Amino acid sequence: MSNHLSLECLFADKSVTYEQFIDELATRLAEKITFANNGELEVSQNKAYKMFGRCDVDRWIKSGKLQPSRISPGKIRYRLADLLNLSEIKQNSNVVQQPSNEE
Prior knowledge:
Elements (H helix, E strand, L loop, with lengths): L7 E3 L4 E3 H20 L4 E3 H8 L1 H9 L7 E3 L2 E5 H9 L15
Helix pairs in contact: 2-3
């Protein structure tokens, strides 16, 4: 067995082997990736504000483009996939470009 697998990771509440730590980490990452790929990963409204900017998130809500995926007392959550899709849309698609004066 490799030498790195005999190492231990010490946390405030427990000690686990390096192999256990990596296995648990890989499992949790795989779950998050699956949720993200299925469009099931959610973020809180506060996290959405931090990631995408409060002005943009509020504009998407006001325009009806963003709907909460879940509302519970004091908490609003949005699908990360919806936020990512909205962030990729050009906000100024209605801007008309001026023709050049070169002839």
